[in-house]
Specification:
Belongs to the ABC transporter superfamily. InterPro entries: AAA+_ATPase, ABC_transporter-like_ATP-bd, ABC_transporter-like_CS, ABC_transpr_MalK/UgpC-like, Mo/tungstate-bd_C_term_dom, P-loop_NTPase, Transp-assoc_OB_typ2. With 373 residues, the protein is of the alpha+beta class. It folds into 2 domains: 238 residues, P-loop containing nucleotide triphosphate hydrolases (Rossmann fold, 3-Layer(aba) Sandwich), CATH 3.40.50.300; 118 residues, RNA polymerase II/Efflux pump adaptor protein, barrel-sandwich hybrid domain (OB fold (Dihydrolipoamide Acetyltransferase, E2P), Beta Barrel), CATH 2.40.50.100. The chain contains 8 helices and 21 strands. The chain has a 6-stranded mixed β-sheet, with helices on both faces. Strands 2-1-4-5-6 form a 5-stranded antiparallel β-sheet, covered by helices on one side. A 5-stranded mixed β-barrel has the order 12-13-14-21-15. α2 packs across α3 and α2 runs parallel beside α4. It is elongated, with a radius of gyration of 25 Å. Bound molecules: adenosine-5'-diphosphate and magnesium ion (MG). The site of adenosine-5'-diphosphate has 11 residues, from β2 and α1.
Length: 373
């Protein structure tokens, strides 16, 4: 049994030269994951998520950096250490499940045991470990079926059983749900989360879907153009986005520009003057000085339409309703206030009409001065 220290990735870099002059890949990734962490790489298509995962797996030779899983160093560029893929015992599932159609479910799942280079497994071990993995994904009665007789969701579970059959200390999942239809995807999301918690296996999950990332993860690294732009808990990513990219990519938000009217240190209360002259009380995620340009993020659900029934909302802005949308569990309003636009989510029973003049309210705790302006 390895000493379980978790996963450490340091200064990981892999840049693909490009003829168009735009070099893709990952510029630098640094993180440590305690054992059992569900970690997600979240970002738009082409930002470098798969490259990072392939470097950790050993499918790609990084330009520099270091990768360690528990007490085993898989890659260390400075020390010239490189452990090949088939000696790392890392479980992997990809978007295209890569289930072999000419094999039975049992043969698919037992494959990693049969080809393992770092140790050999007896016939009995292969049988018991394969059946254990199949029972983990509730497919033990499907062992003798041909893989082609399975639904998409079942094939994905076979891919998952194959990934965990050698009881790896690290599981890598690259957009494993994106080929499933919406209802099944939701189901599998819950299933995968339950399974990961049950097995306690450190997992790195790749997705461009922010809802998946928020729902499943202990920690999220948001990646933009090959760089990690914030690494935090789902709550912090959502409520304390450090930069406009994170605020905008994860959920939707209102971004207001202004100038700092009262200086404060990082984490303190700042005052920001908007273009219309109004002063907003905010929470600042960086040290700010008077006169600094500042961008404030306020989530649509953090804004209320003030009707006198609640307490003091903190900040108040006069606005006019432009559009209403009803989406079942909430109503979405678009409003304007001078030259500013606001998106506001309310209880679906709130009935406002285009042209109505209202007062919007939001707390200084929910008005975040972003760190990157
Ligand atoms: N083998 C490769 N050769 C050249 N460029 C590549 C290669 N693989 C990926 N890239 C480029 O690197 C960038 C990141 O790709 P990738 O890691 O697959 O992004 P993601 O998984 O976030 O969608 C993209 O711009 C992509 O075109
Ligand atoms: Mg990818």
């Amino acid at each position: 049994m390895n000493n379980q220290t978790g996963v450490t990735v340091e200064g990981l870099r892999k840049i693909y030269p490009s003829s168009a002059g735009v070099a893709g890949g990952i510029h630098e990734a640094d993180f440590h994951l305690p054992p059992g962490t569900f970690f997600t790489l979240l970002g738009p298509s082409g930002c470098g998520k798969t490259t990072t995962l392939r470097c950790i797996a050993g499918l790609e030779h990084p330009d520099s950096g270091r990768v360690q899983v528990d007490d085993r160093v898989f890659f260390d560029q400075r020390k010239g250490i490189w452990v090949p893929l088939n000696r790392r015992n890392i479980g992997m599932v990809f978007q295209s499940y890569a289930i072999w159609p000419h094999m039975s479910v049992f043969e698919n799942v037992s494959f990693p045991l049969r080809v393992a280079k770092d140790r050999s497994y007896s016939r009995e071990e292969i049988s018991s470990m394969t059946m254990k993995a199949l029972s983990t994904v509730a497919l033990e009665s499907f062992a003798e079926r041909s893989a082609t007789q399975l639904s998409g969701g079942q094939q994905q579970r076979v891919a998952l059983a194959r990934a965990i059959v050698r009881e790896p200390s690290l599981l890598l999942l690259d957009e494993p749900l994106s080929n499933l239809d919406a209802a099944l995807r939701d189901n599998m999301r819950t299933e995968l989360k339950r399974l990961q918690r049950q097995l306690g296996i450190t997992t790195i999950y790749v997705t461009h879907d922010q809802a998946e990332a928020l729902d499943m993860s202990d920690k999220i690294a948001v990646i933009n153009q090959g760089r990690v732009v914030q690494l935090d808990t789902p709550e912090a990513i959502y409520f304390r986005p450090e930069n406009a990219f994170v605020a905008d990519f994860v959920g939707t938000t209102n971004l207001l520009s202004g100038k700092v009217a009262k200086a404060c240190p990082k984490g303190g209360s700042a005052k920001v003057r908007l273009a219309n002259g109004q002063i907003i009380d905010c929470t600042s995620l960086r040290d700010v000085a008077e006169g600094d340009a500042a961008t404030i993020s306020v989530r649509p659900e953090s804004i209320v339409v003030v009707d006198g029934s609640g307490g003091d909302p903190g900040n108040r802005i006069n606005a006019q309703v432009k559009l209403r949308g009803f989406v079942g569990n909430l109503a979405r309003y678009e409003l304007t206030a001078d030259d500013m636009k606001f998106s506001v989510n309310t209880n679906p029973k709130v009935q406002l009409r285009p042209g109505d003049n209202v007062v919007l309210g939001f707390s200084p705790d929910d008005a975040i001065v972003l760190a990157d302006n």
